[in-house]
Automatic annotation (TrEMBL):
PANTHER family: HTH-TYPE TRANSCRIPTIONAL REGULATOR GALS, LACI-RELATED TRANSCRIPTIONAL REPRESSOR. GO terms for molecular function: DNA-binding transcription factor activity; transcription cis-regulatory region binding. Coiled coil: none annotated. Keywords: DNA-binding, Transcription, Transcription regulation. Residues 24-291 form the Periplasmic binding protein/LacI sugar binding domain. The lineage of its organism: Bacteria, Pseudomonadati, Bacteroidota, Cytophagia, Cytophagales. Transmembrane segments: none annotated. InterPro entries: Peripla_BP/Lac1_sug-bd_dom (IPR001761), Peripla_BP_I (IPR028082). It comes from the Bacteria. SUPFAM superfamilies: Periplasmic binding protein-like I (SSF53822). This is LacI family transcriptional regulator. The keyword Transcription applies.
Length: 304
């Protein structure tokens, strides 16, 4: 040990991985690191992984199914001990994940998951968050509430749409399919969609379901010269740190991204380190969201 210190020796991780048959590394695939939700989730993953002596190898799918498949091939080649993944906006076929399970590589899905595969899953309580957002808008006097959401394939899209629909039903407001818009990942697409929605459907409130959509729609509404919240109330499903700095400040349903990352990492590392390799009972963990009401959805007492 004295000589090792003298010559600044450090263990070779590749050699150690061959000796122990463990890389002490986990793979993470997310749609986009620039998305604030995923950057927070990665921070949570790294927090747990580092404490437990693991490295984190991060890949981006950029919302591409094919890139997601390629990333998994790279991850397997790097001999990671397990995989955390949030599915791309194009992913419907999960056979590439089933192949991972056949190779006995521990797998945990987080945020965007699939009911076509049995695995550990960690999600926000999307239904409850969307229900609370929609009910808040209803109780503030709004009746034509538009819902602008992500591609229909995503699990989060389905869960948040259900929360929106149930809130309308509870308050006896008919569900109007023309007020629900699915949007891809290009800013110009969102802007065009919101312009058409405002001009054709005349909503009095908008509920969006991502950071990106919240900013794109907020910008489009203000470009139209529409007053928020006097003419149009607004609430997002976001993790924006600048939500309170917007003018007016943006009401949001806040997802516990850091906690989701931590919980997903704990589940994965527990699976990796389980001494007895018996069949696991897979768990789906739902983590509560929080509603933060700001000026963009202030209550209109005269209409309530």
């Amino acid at each position: 040990m004295e000589y090792a210190e003298k010559v600044n020796y450090s263990p070779n991780p590749i050699a150690l991985s061959l000796k122990e048959n463990k890389s002490r590394a986990i793979g993470v695939i997310v749609p986009e690191i620039a998305n604030h939700f995923f950057s927070q989730a990665i921070n949570g993953i790294e927090d747990i992984a580092n404490k437990r002596g693991y490295h984190v190898v991060i890949f981006q799918s950029h919302e591409s199914y094919q890139r997601e498949v390629t990333n998994i091939q790279h991850i397997i080649a790097r001999k990671v001990d397990g995989l955390l993944i949030s599915l791309s906006g194009q992913t419907n076929d999960v056979s590439h994940l089933q192949e991972i399970q056949q190779k006995k590589l521990p797998l945990v899905l987080f945020d965007r998951v699939s009911d076509k595969i049995e695995a550990h899953k960690v999600v926000a309580d999307n239904f409850d968050g969307a229900f609370k957002a929609t009910e808040h808008l209803i109780l503030s006097g709004r009746r034509r509430i538009a819902h602008i959401t992500s591609p229909s394939l995503l699990s989060i899209t389905k869960e948040r749409l259900m929360g929106y629909q149930v809130a309308l039903e509870k308050h006896q407001i008919p569900y109007d399919e023309s007020l629900v818009k699915y949007c891809g990942f290009e800013p110009e697409e969102a802007k065009k969609l919101i312009f058409n929605l405002i001009n054709e459907q005349k909503p009095d409130a908008i509920f969006t379901t991502s950071d990106r959509l919240a900013l794109d729609c907020f910008s489009a509404v203000k470009e139209q010269g529409i007053l928020i919240p006097e003419e149009l109330s607004f609430i997002g499903f976001t993790n924006l740190k600048v939500a309170h700095l917007l003018a007016p400040s943006l009401s949001t349903i806040v997802q516990p991204a850091f906690e989701i990352g931590q919980t997903a990492a704990e589940l994965l590392l527990d699976s990796i380190e389980r001494k007895q390799h018996h069949v696991e009972e897979f768990r789906t963990i739902k983590i509560p969201t929080e509603m933060v009401v700001r000026n963009s959805s202030q209550i209109l007492l005269q209409n309530s």
